[in-house]
Amino acid sequence: MDKTAFRSLTYGMYLVSSLRDGKPVGCVANTFTQVTSNPAQASIALNKDNFTTQGVREAGAFEVAVLDQSASMELIGAFGFHSSADTDKFSGFTTETSAQGIPYVSEQVCAHFSVKVEQEIDLGSHVLFIGAVTDAAPLGGEEPMTYAYYHQVKGGKTPPKAPSFNEDAPAKKEESDPAAGRTFAWRCTVCGHIEYVDELPEDFTCPICGVGRDLFERIEL
Q1: Per the CB 3.0–4.6 Å rule, which of 6, 82, 110, 121 could disulfide with 68?
Q2: CB under 8 Å to 9, separation ≥6 — which residues?
Q3: Nearest to residue 115, comparing CAs of 51, 66, 60, 68?
Q4: Which residues touch 1 (CB under 8 Å, ≥6 apart)?
């Protein structure tokens, strides 16, 4: 099977949030989908190892904020490459609290959905939650960010726990930056952030996802 065929599928970029032990948890997902219109129902697949997945199970509900094209790599990095087990992902971002009592990010997003879980299906590595959409509203006027936009324009990476992660996929060669005047740079193998420097300090950490120098690779431009 040629898994590159999966790259032809279209996805959005979403921030999923819920509550675990009374505290807000969240992650990035690309699998939020409307399944029926009357009644309004939606589904989302989350990795079983995600801290947020257990929160959705515990709360029986979740919120989804649709990222728009203005969404920063700092926001995506905070929710996509850290764990809610030891990180307050909502700190530093504007949030609102839904009628379900669950916080959600309300900046750099173009729509918001509240979902009450009604079914749970075991998919092996992931869990599919299906539920009733109890509230929905557009937020802002920016275009929604697609998964392709995240990769091609933002230069982002796919987190290993994402359903679309393919460890066999070849790395995309970065285009050169004429203003930098360099022939090589350093790229974070976790989130895709690029540092245009000759050498990274030993104590360097990625400003997006927080990993150390050992997870950066030297790339030719």
Answers
A1: 110
A2: 164
A3: 60
A4: none
> What does the DSSP 8-state code read for residue 205?
B
* Residue 169 identity: A
Taking a C-beta distance cutoff of 8 angstroms, is the pair 166, 212 a contact? no
d(CA 102, CA 115) in angstroms, rounded, equals 11
How many Å apart are CA 127 and CA 194, to the nearest integer?
Answer: 33
Count of other CB atoms within 10 angstroms of residue 29 = 26
Residue 110 and residue 103: Cα distance in Å, rounded? 16
| Calpha distance 102→17 (Å, rounded) | 7
Tokens of 140: 């802002």
CA atoms within 13 A of residue 114's CA, in its CB half-sphere: 13
Whether 53 and 47 have beta carbons less than 8 Å apart is answered as: yes
Give this prediction's pTM. 0.78
CA-wise closest residue to 111 among 134, 146, 74, 136:
136
For 191, residues 6+ apart whose C-beta sits below 8 A from its C-beta are 73, 76, 77, 80, 81, 156, 157, 206, 208, 209, 211
Q: Indicate if the alpha-carbon torsion angle 22, 97, 133, 13 is positive or negative.
A: negative
Q: Which amino acid is at 94?
A: T
Angstrom distances, CA of residue 82 to CA of 11, 115, 159, 203 = 21, 24, 10, 19
| C-alpha span between 11 and 189 (Å, rounded) | 22
